[in-house]
Amino acid sequence: MMTKHSEYMESFFGVELYKKLEDVLGDLENIEVDLKGISQEIGRLGGKLEDDDRTGTVREMRAATYESAQQVRDVRTFLDFYFTQSQELSQVILERDAYMLLYQIFKWDMNDVRDLRAWIRDFYHVCKTIGYRPEDLLNLSRLTANPVPQDVVHYPVYAVDKHGYCLCGKHCDDIVYIGEIREEMDEMAKNA
After folding, report:
1. Are 68 and 36 in contact (CB under 8 A)?
2. What is the full DSSP assignment across 114-179?
3. How far apart are CA 28 and CA 26, in angstroms?
4. Which residues contact 151 (CB under 8 A, 6 or more apart)?
5. Mean pLDDT in each 10-residue stretch from start to end of the chain (192 residues)?
6. pLDDT for position 50
7. Per-residue model confidence (pLDDT) at position 184
8. Which of 106, 111, 130, 136 has the smallest CB count inside 10 Å?
9. CA torsion angle for 12, 17, 23, 29 (degrees, to 10)?
10. Would you report the helix, strand and coil content of the chain in percent, each value rounded to 5?
């Protein structure tokens, strides 16, 4: 028989939290639209309506209000379960996020280096929050499966996307076209 804690863990790891959070935010937007519609219908009730229209409108508003209340309950339940259960679960969520970001970094498709930069920033933020040392988990010199061209690796360049844009800089926060890096390195070599 499963304990309540193990049920939480099974549910937690069985869900893509980013996707679920997007869905929940979409639900909240739908609720907002529904409630604005109900507000307009209430305004109509104050006007001149036939009794049948008034009764039908009241029934529709009651049903819509109940549905919105159910959606709010579902959103609240999601947020409560995944984000406020306990300090221990919050730690697990952040650890999970760190490892999910590592997975995204390692599986980067080389299409756009901006994606990689965003994941690395998020990874560093999560590590700082939970007290991990990012350098213990992420080796910048072997960031991707595809090696960085030798002539720019010491710039430092950590990754190059399909379009020739490089992730570089001390904290992996700069993006520069590889041709510009080569020109700058040639200029530095001439002046040395």
Report:
1. no
2. HHHHHHHHHHHHHHHHHT--HHHH--GGG-SSSPPPTTTTTTTEEEE-TTSEEEESTTS-EEEEHH
3. 5
4. 182, 185
5. 53 58 76 78 70 78 82 78 64 83 90 94 89 89 84 91 93 92 91 82
6. 77
7. 92
8. 136
9. 110
10. 70, 5, 25
- Check residue 1 and give its pLDDT: 43
Q: Which two tokens stand for residue 60?
A: 């529709």
**All residues at 6 or more sequence positions from 90 whose CB lies less than 8 Å from its CB, including other chains:** 83, 84
The first and second tokens of residue 155, run together, are: 């710039």
Instruction: Judge whether 68 and 52 are in contact, CB under 8 Å.
Output: no
Q: How does 83-116 read in b/e, with b if 16+ C-beta sit within 10 Å?
A: eeeeeebeebbbeebbebbbebbeebeeeebeeb
Say which amino acid occupies 57.
Answer: T
Phi, psi of 33 (to 5 degrees): -65, -45
Decide: helix, strand or coil at residue 2: coil
In this structure, are residues 152 and 178 in contact, taking their beta carbons and an 8 Å threshold?
Answer: yes
Question: What confidence score (pLDDT) does residue 2 get?
Answer: 46
Q: Which strand ranges, in their side-by-side order, compose the sheet holding 174-177? A: 157-160, 165-168, 174-177
20, two tokens = 């679920």
- Distance from CA of residue 163 to its chain's centroid? 25
